[in-house]
Design goal:
Strand order of the largest sheet: 1-2-3-4-5-6-7-8
Pfam families: Dus
Largest sheet: 8 strands, parallel, barrel
Helix content: 40-55%
Function: Catalyzes the synthesis of 5,6-dihydrouridine (D), a modified base found in the D-loop of most tRNAs, via the reduction of the C5-C6 double bond in target uridines.
Strand content: 5-15%
Protein name: tRNA-dihydrouridine synthase
CATH class of the largest domain: Alpha Beta
Order of helices and strands: EHEHEHEHHEHEHEHEHHHHHH
Number of strands: 8
Structural class: alpha/beta
InterPro entries: Aldolase_TIM, DUS-like_FMN-bd, DUS_fam, tRNA_hU_synthase_CS
Cofactor: FMN
Shape: globular
Distance between the termini: 26 Å
CATH architecture of the largest domain: Alpha-Beta Barrel
Bound molecules: flavin mononucleotide
């Protein structure tokens, strides 16, 4: 199985990725959060910083573009290619209202003719000779049956990999991934498939691979945020080492202190990470409240020290909603 770290906008930027790569093994590829293609505005400094090769110390990174405009997409893809990337992912999965209302992300799935024309332009453009395009998609916007028309469209193009999160836009992250339609996708797709969705524990992984032994690639998001060593646990049944988790935390914290500097901004980033990471610890509830209430580095460091000293890794940990 190939394991990919999912794109997680606002949480997993280059500081987090580098810390992850330095402390944990077995991620075959990291996907960067989406960049909105816009020829006029170009890249924001934040977007550019996140994918600069020198900010991603030797890890394999796939930048992602959010777009419904082929000419903007091609322009952005050219710039990303010039930065040294030869694989780019198209985001057809984002369910957020702001994105969907502009017919982007999973909103684009409802406009099948336009989507086909977009892919036609992209795959027949000059840049497609230099860059392999993969696609991250949901099953549809309002009904999972939309997928049958979508897969016919995707099959017309040499998609490097079709990453399927088998929910529809209106699910956001509610309900369960639709494994019935995913199973059909496996026989219908002419392109390689990757599965994404709700693999939070070793047991989730085992159940999934027993049902789908033919799947060769899997993308993990929230499961890795809660247990950054999840892939090692899957491969070797080992429990995360508390000292390694501490080193990982310290790397992220030092990275944000260096890049963001302003106390409030650094703490807000760390609080976002703890929303998930706290689930690796026993008796974690009171600590999360104190972490969230921290308004200075001193308060923050004190509670984190206490957490690592007083609590153990929860062997049953895994992301839970
Ligand atoms: C906070 C957050 C940010 C996300 N940002 C992106 C993004 O930038 N691009 C994208 O394709 N998906 C994004 N996703 C979706 C994830 O990549 C992934 O598809 C989703 O979390 C389901 O996988 P999981 O069940 O393993 O978490 C985001 C999800 C979350 C929770």
């Amino acid at each position: 199985m190939q394991f990919y770290y999912a794109p997680l906008e606002g949480v997993v930027g280059h500081v987090y990725r580098n810390a992850h790569k330095a402390n944990f093994k077995y991620i075959d590829k990291y996907f960067a959060p989406f960049i909105v293609s816009d020829q006029k505005k170009g890249f924001s400094t934040k977007d550019l910083d996140d994918i600069l090769l020198e900010n991603n110390n030797g890890l394999i990174l796939v930048p992602q573009i959010l777009s419904n405009n082929a000419s903007d997409f091609i322009h952005t893809a050219q710039k990303i290619n010039q930065m040294g990337y030869s694989e780019i992912n198209l985001n057809l999965g984002c369910p957020s209202k702001k994105v969907v209302s502009k017919n982007r992300g999973s909103g684009f799935l409802a406009h099948k003719e336009a989507l086909n024309a977009f892919l036609d332009d992209v795959y027949s453009s000059q840049i497609a000779q230099h860059v392999a395009f993969s696609i991250k998609t949901r099953l549809g916007k309002t009904h999972p049956d939309e997928f049958y028309a979508l897969i016919e469209i995707f099959n017309r193009y040499p998609v490097k990999e079709l990453i399927i999160h088998p929910r529809i836009q209106t699910d956001i992250y509610h309900n369960k991934p639709n494994l019935k339609v995913f199973k059909e996708a496996l026989s219908l797709s002419q392109n390689p498939l990757c599965y994404n969705g709700d693999i939070f524990t070793v047991s989730d992984y085992t159940t999934f691979t027993n049902a789908f032994p033919e799947v060769k690639a899997m993308m993990l998001g929230r499961g890795l945020l809660a247990n950054p060593d999840l892939v090692n646990a899957i491969k070797t049944y080992s429990k995360i080492d508390k000292s390694v988790l501490k080193a990982f935390h310290d790397d992220i914290y030092a990275g944000y202190r260096q890049s963001l500097m302003v106390e409030r901004n650094v703490l807000s980033k760390m609080k976002e990470i703890w929303y998930y990471l706290i689930q690796s610890f026993t008796n974690n509830e009171t600590y999360l409240k104190v972490i969230r209430a921290a308004i200075s580095f001193v308060d923050y460091e004190a509670v984190v020290e206490r957490l690592f000293e007083e609590q153990e890794i929860d062997v049953h940990s895994g992301y839970s909603q």
